Amino acid sequence: EGKVLYERNCQHCHGATGAGDGKVASRYKGVPNYSSDAVKVLSQGHIFHVITFGIRRMWPHKSQVNPEERWKIAHYVHKLQQGQ
């Protein structure tokens, strides 16, 4: 379920594998590459917080994605970071 929600809500910026190469990413410079070994693996709680409140150029998504869905996305992104 997290993958489906990620594809619907996140992939356009963050890319299919979390590499920061989504179609919109070229417009918003600085989209992080979560699939890179160079990036620190973020906790699911941190990811949930960023989805909820936003960070830097990422806008908050709490009005578009309910809390249960945010946790599912956070779990999926955490797996992407671990190369799973």
Description:
- The protein has 84 residues and is mainly α.
- 44% of the residues lie in helices and 0% in strands.
- The protein contains 4 helices and no strands.
- Helix 1 crosses helix 4 (67-81).
- The longest helix is centred in the last third of the chain and has 15 residues, at 67-81.
What is the radius of gyration?
Answer: 11 Å
Mean pLDDT: 84
Shape: globular
**Poorly predicted sequence stretches spanning 5 or more consecutive residues:** none
What structural class results from the helix and strand content? mainly alpha
Total number of helices: 4
Total number of beta strands: 0
Main sheet characteristics:
none
Order of helices and strands: HHHH
- Intertermini distance: 15 Å
Strand percentage: under 5%
Q: How much helix, percentage-wise, in residues?
A: 40-55%
Summary?
Helices cover 44% and strands 0% of the residues. It contains four helices and no strands.
